Amino acid sequence: MKHTLEVDSIILEFDTKRVLQDVYLKNETGKTTGILGRNGTGKTCLMNIIYGSLKTNNKSIRLDGKAIFDAYRYPEILRYLPQFNFIPGNLKIKRIFKDFSLNFSQCVEYFPEFEKYYSMKVKSLSGGERRILEIYSILASETMFCMLDEPFSKVMPIHIDTIKRIISEEKKNKGIIITDHLYEHIMDICEEIYVIANGKTYLTKDRNDLIKLGYINEN
Q1: For residue 202, what are the β-bridge partners?
Q2: Left (φ > 0), alpha (ψ -120 to 50) or beta: where does 42 sit?
Q3: pTM value?
Q4: Over the chain, what HEC string results?
Q5: d(CA 84, CA 150)
């Protein structure tokens, strides 16, 4: 069964500065939706509003046409990968796979180097390995939708292709919303891409739209 997550009517202000307005975004299970925008345009804020961790008086977030609030309370509906490390470093990796109901052997098929870490603590991983663990935990978990904030920016290029393969596989069962400054990867894996500019979202068709909206230079 296909599910739809829709977001609109968002107004976000900090003091006298309006960051977001006239926002519309849609993601469906079976699809990957990208969000692009220059620094400070509100990409992370938008994700946090959808997740429910950033409050604003004006928002409409709907699952299959019905309003949802505080989505962070319902991991079966939505999971979120923030830019910062969210898994405590003192937990053992095998505990993470148990808590997220994940199959460790399947992870090792993608990342063979993780096999030796099963009984070790998260803090024993390198920064890039820790990020991979968190990305996999969100992407492979049982949920209708997941949001990924900068999944490519802190991992080695060799692992980016693997993460893109996982996204391609996991979108068969869920909807995925993703933002990253490495926009070429977003363009490669997303069926739809929204650009945030002047507080508004614009659904784009191709690279020319990114140029017109000032996100990338023509050269």
Answers
A1: 195
A2: left
A3: 0.96
A4: CCCEEEEEEEEEEECCEEEECCCEEEEECCCEEEEECCCCCCHHHHHHHHHCCCCCCEEEEEECCEECCCHHHCCCCEEEECCCCCCCCCCEHHHHHHHCCCCHHHHHHHCHHHHHHCCCEHHHCCHHHHHHHHHHHHHCCCCCEEEEECCCCCCCHHHHHHHHHHHHHHCCCCEEEEECCCHHHHHHHCCEEEEEECCEEEEECCHHHHHHCCCCCCC
A5: 10
Residues 210, 213, 219: CA angle, nearest 5 degrees:
55
* Strand-pair partners of 92: 121
Output the pLDDT for position 219.
Answer: 64
Q: In sequence order, what are the residues at sequence separation of 6 or more whose Cβ sits closer than 8 angstroms to the Cβ of residue 188?
A: 164
Determine how many CB atoms are found less than 10 A away from the CB of residue 38.
14
| 187 contacts 180 by C-beta, under 8 angstroms | no
pLDDT digits (tens, 9 = 90+) for 161-213: 999 999 999 999 999 999 999 999 999 999 999 999 999 999 999 999 999 99
Structure tokens at 51: 């997740």
CA 190 to mean position of chain CA atoms: 12
> Two tokens at 118?
């099963």
